[in-house]
Amino acid sequence: MPISPLRIVVSLLVFFGLWQALVALVGLPAWILPSPSQIFLEFAHNYRDYLFQTVSTLGTTLAGFGLAFVFGPLLAILIVYSRFFETSVFPLLISFNSIPKIALAPLFVIWLGTGAQARIAVSFLIAFFPVVIDTILGLRSVDPDALDLFKAMRGSRFQSLMKIRLPHALPFLFSGLKVAISFALVGAIAGEFIASQTGLGSAILIAQGMFQTQRVFVSLILLGIMGAALFYLVEFAERIVCPWHVSHRTVIRS
Fold first, then answer.
1. What gap in Å lies between CA 164 and CA 98, rounded to an integer?
2. Percent helix, strand and coil across the chain, each rounded to 5?
3. pTM of the full predicted structure?
4. In-domain check, residue 130
5. Least confident stretch, 8-12, 135-139, 218-222
6. How many CB atoms lie within 10 A of CB 12?
7. Could you report how far apart the first and last alpha carbons of the chain are, in Å?
8. Could you tell me if residue 182 is inside a domain?
9. Are 39 and 221 contacting, i.e. CB atoms less than 8 angstroms apart?
């Protein structure tokens, strides 16, 4: 069931109102916990810089997510249809995923330099795995009777993929994409922590070193807004592509 925008606005207003009151009553200094009004003033005074950093992080996130969206389903199809990929590549993928990607970031800096390529690579690797796993689950969860019937009607493997497996796997794919878009943002920030002079991750590191807590909170709030917006954009695309799925039907509560 869609979330009411009015409820979101009211909840945020209540949350920030309580935050403002708490800071005023306790008298916390701004370098420990700034008030929402101080955070807003910081953004208003330097909004051009924050927007530039946001666009930089957004570009890295979308690039990493786009690569995961392209190569994730392709690898999932190969794993489902190829015995070699299932027995050889898939176990390697599982083992590789157990390695914290932040530990690989310095290697990407050595291999790819300190430009956008290293940050995109980290974002892609973190977002890649959930897309592959959820797509494999969707491709394998097709009713065997439907596949047998299609085979009896002399349908080819490619036709069964396009007409049965992929349509059935779409909800699973979008489930993985909704996780992947958040992971891609995490990967982009991790890459900016390691090697970047631009982006919200870099802005957080610089502000932290100078004890400019307001700037840290502005960056965090922008990251939260960006992450929520990207998630709901993927969900909106899912509603367009899979309007028939049960998760998008209107629920009537008694």
1. 32
2. 80, 0, 20
3. 0.86
4. yes
5. 8-12
6. 11
7. 14
8. yes
9. yes
